[in-house]
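Revision sheet: structure tokens.
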Amino acid sequence: MTTTLRVGIACRPELRDQYLGAADLARLGRIAEISVADFDVPGDTWGRIPVIAEFEDRLADFASDKHVLLVFHGAPRVTERVFAAAGELQVVGDIEGDRFAGRIDVAAAHAAGVLVVDTTHASSWPVAEWALALMLIGLRKNAHFRQIIAGRQMSQSEYRTNPPGRELTGKTVGLIGFGHIGWRLREFLVPFGCPIIAYDPYAPRELADAQGVDFGSLERVMGCDVVVCLAPATPHTIGMIGERELALLRTDAVFINVSRGTVVDVGPLIARAARDDAWFGLDAHDPEPIAVDSPLRGMPNVFLSPHIAGVTEEAQPRFFSLMVDELERFASGLEPRAQITDRVVAGRGGA
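Predicted:
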């Protein structure tokens, strides 16, 4: 391994100052020579980057002498052509994608012997916080805020008893998906003494003992007191929570979605919420933003936020900060922690 890494960063120019913090650049500069290239690929969307020959060639030329290539918004997809041109490349990193290094051809990277690292989980901190907040709001029967905003006068007895709220302490929490967000949410739930049951076909079962959770079927998880959807958007998870699964929600259950709107079939979701015997906290929607005429907007048992769980002042620079952590590990002979392995790729494809 070289003593000084040559690191190239490809991104949209206006995002440099937002993501690449001065302290972290200085930290990286102690172990690397840093070059930044401006890109703005047309049609750049979350996880779906068009391959345009002009931009692919520019990225291949930029990466040709680099040991590390980091990409995020605006950068071209890192393709087989780029790996072929970058013979010294050892690490390619996605600073902020849509999980699973969506801007990188992972199979081509592995074929070239290049490690793939994705620090998109930097937003897991605030998403877990907001999931906890929505759980508490749901358990406290969140309809009262609508009555206050509408200017309705209520007696003190109505506020206190109609209907009574509930505490999170001791409630059984079901997690659909048990990745970075789930791990952090589990930490937050420790003081509440909540038994946790997770549904995740791809999570190593060793996590059960290590994290103090149990794994169960999706049906078992849907029957918990509080159900939190954390599943990523993959071909396998589209519409995964449908009429059959939503029917398993118990009376007075709380259902939270802070993952992706496409994971929950919106028609059955509206129908289940309309029964008005369970409570819903929804940050992710399908379509997004939530339709203006969606019935969910007016339901008193539904609390909505506009997919802002992961958008915080602290999260934005954390993506790059975590990547610098990974490169410090790599430079000192340690393995990066947030590697995209074949198991992670299998989860992304729903295999």
